Amino acid sequence: MATTSKQYKAIGEDLWKSRTDKINSELFALTYGALVVQLIQDYEDYAEVNKQLEKMGYNIGTRLIEDFLARSSLGRCSDFREVGEVAAKVGFKSFLNITPTVTHSGAPPPSSRSTSAAQQSGVPGSSFILTLDENPLAEFVELPDEALEGGLWFSNVLCGVLRGALEMVQMQVQVEFLSDVLRGDESTEIRVTLLKYLEEEVPVGDD
Amino acid sequence: MQAAPASALSALADPPARMVDGAAMDYLLIEAVNALRISSAVASARAKKIECDMVEAGLVPPPPPAKQQNPRDSASSTLGKISGPADEDEGVRSRLEAIGMHVGGNFAERLCRDRPLFSDSLDVIKFVCKDLWISCWDKQVDNLRTNHRGVYVLQDNAFKPISRISSWEGRQEALKRAKLYVALPAGIIRGALSRIGFQGTVVPEITTLPQCTFQIKLPKNT
């Protein structure tokens, strides 16, 4: 019995409501913004800053996933499509209080939902796109021309978080920004592509 | 003029603050310190390289061997490689403080929007102890002392940013690391004060976790 999208939304809402430790998102945005500025000053290279933000995000993601699993006690996702749903409706909701919309690629038509589990996207190459209507990181932010030309993805840390978190649950993914309103695009979109499933490896000498 | 559905209008004018999860902020700060450590090393390496280049081009006389080096190190290079954990930490600390100042200044502006002007420096300090502390760290300062001559000591017995720091290397190590992490809050306080108009210094001190004191020195003529 597949959990429906509405149920995930409800789970996300509940998790968010049950959090006792919340902070003002402006504080968060200001801190992140100042951090990005400092990194730009230190590296003087936007591509490098993108990389560092992603790396930071990766480290955050590897810890975040444990927190997430502990709180939500959701089981394993049956397929990649579900991963997208959970990430958007429960993950983003419980940490950032936003619910990006998910668009799956290669998704089976809704009518065959009952048989979808078998055939769907456990296939490497499947992907989903998260569209963020609001980005708490980008509050008060305007990018100068240099940053636009230099190719800065301001919220690149989010890509890292997704990559790190999913790697800890045995999925190797590629996460990248497709567009960003800070850059003047219509919407902010992140694409997550499944590269492969990782085998659980026993650390050397651990048996 | 009738009172229109007050709640709807006031919600438009003054939207309730958006919140994010506290844990997200904690994770961000933890990683920020690591990222800044690396980036400050990159920045200082670049600065050193520029200095070396200039010295080689003869534009700048070579720096004298640093006399303030540890006497045991007398045999080390003339270019004064005083690098090491102390320097690194200084770079990270000043960056954290700078970030804090940016955050504190802007956040204080938001907080002060609807309040009347501050009457004197004590009033400003009280604002910091109550409103700023509550918005950032969910509680008020536990103890405020002053010598009435511009020095204020704020004590928080369970300072939120360091309340969950622990180290497998033991309490001393945890204390040492905590000292780095309080640079950001110190910056927030300093930034807030500066945006309000008081250029002071803020020195954090930790003797036992999770208690933390901040010594604020405001200039005399306020």
Overview of this protein structure:
The complex is a heterodimer of chains A (207) and B (222). With 207 residues, chain A is of the alpha+beta class. Chain A has helices spanning 5-18, 25-43, 46-72, 80-96, 113-119, 145-150, 156-168; strands at 22-24, 101-105, 127-132, 171-179, 188-197. Chain B is of the alpha+beta class and 222 residues long. Helices cover 50% and strands 11% of the residues of chain B. Chain B has helices spanning 6-13, 22-56, 85-111, 121-137, 171-181, 183-196; strands spanning 19-21, 143-146, 151-156, 201-205, 212-217. Chain B has a 4-stranded antiparallel sheet with strand order 2-3-5-4, covered by helices on one side. The chains are: A alpha+beta (207), B alpha+beta (222). The A-B interface holds A 16, 19, 21-28, 30-35, 37-39, 41-44, 52, 55-57, 59-60, 63-64, 67, 94-97, 136, 140, 157 and B 17-25, 27-32, 34-36, 38-40, 42-43, 46, 95, 98-99, 102-103, 106-107, 110, 135-136, 184. Strand 1 of chain A pairs antiparallel with strand 1 (19-21) of chain B.
